[in-house]
What does this fold into?
Amino acid sequence: MTQPTPTVADVAATLARHYPPDWAADWDQVGLVLGEPEAPVRRVLCVVDCVPETVAEAVDAGVDLIVAHHPLLLRPVSTVAPTTYKGRIIHDLIRAGIALYVAHTNADVADPGVSDALAARLGLRDLRPLRPLAADLAAIGPGSQLGAGRIGVLPTPATLAELVQQAAEALPRTAWGVRAAGDPQRRIYTMAVCGGAGDSYLADATAAGVDAYLTADLRHHPVSEHLAAGGPALLDAAHWATERPWLDELARLLRDTLRVEPVVSDLDTDPWTAHAKEPL
It folds into this structure.
């Protein structure tokens, strides 16, 4: 017997079970953004950012739904006129009959979630959360690994110089690349990772006693003060590159649970488009 085609509501319900909206930060905006709940879904585009380029990709791919990591409407708007940036995106999606769903910080803390996929790219094992989720929420979760970031053991110890090269090869390529702060010859055995902007977890990485911490969007003064205080070495990668690995896990979830056809976007939506090293 042929199974009925899943609907937007079916996909939203499945995603809400794996990434409960209650796990999202209070400032976040997750869940179904637009789309008719009863509309059928056969193909889904998985993206980090819902931007004009990925919307065009969705139209070209003939998908019925976009699942994005970053919210389109994170901050309040007073108009969705097509003359505005976000309004144009919304009009294009509605005209094409494409629904939009967002899983953001609720996917960050899930098990498995964004940082698990990042840790897997680096081969980390014996994973545990960098900052565990509150006990009252973790109690209703599917596992014991709920929380932001992951801590793990490298498959083979490496110097920081070697590790930054390994990370650059393991992560999706961007103009930003991967840079490191700390003694290049420092030996790294344990490592913390956090997909996306993770400088709010610098103290957690120090308290955990790891040798290195990889995340994105690190800033000059917090990094300088962190190192001066004896914190672990730091690796700073492009924001998009640290979250793109999760899209593969998301695609597997959609394929295995709903039998829809997922399409993973490899379109680099990191805003930095060029990089040059100073001549030696």
